[in-house]
Structure formats: structure tokens, C-alpha cells
Design goal:
Maf protein; alpha/beta; single chain; seven-stranded mixed beta sheet
């Protein structure tokens, strides 16, 4: 199998790649995410995923001969797009907004094959959070899980305490829609064989 470059600083995505048993290495992208602020959420995450992938491609000696994958995840509730909280106060505000309500999690996936062809898609999952009391929000904030994640919660950790139901891909909510990504690899003729030339 060919190495896939993961254009992400996310430890969650790194863990998912390890679970998928795909050969990979991490190269952290450098790009200005503020450039994509005015687009709707689906196009925003796809554009940011592409920007991250392109950022990493620009660092490679032979960018047209490598598999590179970029990802970006955001949350939307009642037309408002939510990214990552920068402070505890912002995290509390996000959790108060999501408490007891349904929101949608979007992840843009950008994949460039070793032939230089780009494939960009988006996954969407719905999540219903239980009504969170102030003391529950305070407890959750104290865990530190709010840092560095869209919506200020981690469904794969203590954030699961407050998930009433989900509809769609669980791994998408974590930050990498596995089924969609696998389909993209297949559609772009990625070889899953362990033997050379297959």
C-alpha cells in the first residue's frame, strides 16, 4: 500500500488513520482559514480541506506523485456555523447553544491521488444533545475536552455523556468520515494490496 500524507494536526484523525491500518505520515498544513468565512458550511469545509491539502502539497518535492488528504470539520445549528472555541467562555456559549438541540456536523474531505487528481466531498451527520444543566457544562469545561474541537465537545470521550442520538456517520462527528474516505480511495484506484504491483 502507498503512503498517504495526512494534512492535519488533529490527534483524532491520526488515531483513525492508525485504526484503518493505512500507511501514513502527518504533515501539518499552514493556511489562513479566515479566507473562507463567507461561504455556506458545506462549501466552507470542502474549501478548507482543499486548502490544507494544497498547503501540504506545496511542501513536497514531488507533489504530483503522492497521496495527500485534507480534512475540515464544522458544526451548523439554525444556520449559524460553529468552529472551535478559543476560550472557556466561548466554549460555554457553544455548549449552551447546542444544549437540548439538534445540530449538524459537516466534514470536508479533499484527496489528491498519486496521479495529481483531486477529489473533494463532504459528509454530514446530525446530533442531538441532551439538555445540559449549568453544573454539567461547568464539569465538562473542567475536563479540557472543549479545546481544539468544533462545537467544544468530543463525542468519543466524556462528551458522549450528553449525546441523546446521532444520525449518520459516527466517525464523521469525530472528524474523519471513514466510509466516505474509503470510497474516495477506491474510486481513485488506491491499491489496498500489501504486494507490490497490485
Amino acid at each position: 500500500m502507498e503512503e498517504i500524507i495526512l494534512a492535519s494536526a488533529s490527534s483524532r484523525r491520526k488515531q483513525i488513520f492508525m485504526q484503518m491500518h493505512l500507511p501514513f505520515r502527518v504533515v501539518i498544513p499552514v493556511c489562513n482559514e479566515q479566507e473562507i468565512q463567507k461561504k455556506d458550511v458545506e462549501n466552507r469545509v470542502m474549501n478548507l480541506a482543499y486548502m490544507k491539502g494544497m498547503s501540504v502539497c506545496s511542501l513536497l518535492k514531488n507533489p504530483g506523485q503522492a497521496w495527500v488528504s485534507g480534512f475540515d470539520t464544522m458544526i451548523e445549528v439554525d444556520g449559524k456555523v460553529i468552529g472551535k472555541a478559543g476560550t472557556e467562555k466561548e466554549a460555554v456559549e457553544m455548549l449552551c447553544m447546542l444544549s437540548g438541540r439538534v445540530h449538524r456536523v459537516y466534514t470536508g474531505v479533499a484527496l489528491v491521488s498519486d496521479s495529481g487528481k483531486w477529489d473533494i466531498r463532504v459528509a454530514m451527520s446530525e446530533v442531538k444533545l441532551t439538555h445540559m444543566l449549568k453544573k454539567e457544562i461547568d464539569f465538562y469545561i473542567s475536563t479540557g475536552e472543549w479545546k481544539g474541537v468544533a462545537g467544544s465537545y468530543r463525542i468519543q470521550e466524556c462528551g458522549a455523556f450528553f449525546i441523546e442520538w446521532i444520525k449518520g456517520s459516527y466517525s464523521n462527528i469525530v472528524g474523519l468520515p471513514i466510509s466516505l474516505f474509503y470510497g474516495m480511495l477506491k474510486d481513485n484506484n488506491y491499491s489496498f494490496s500489501l504486494r507490490q504491483g497490485n
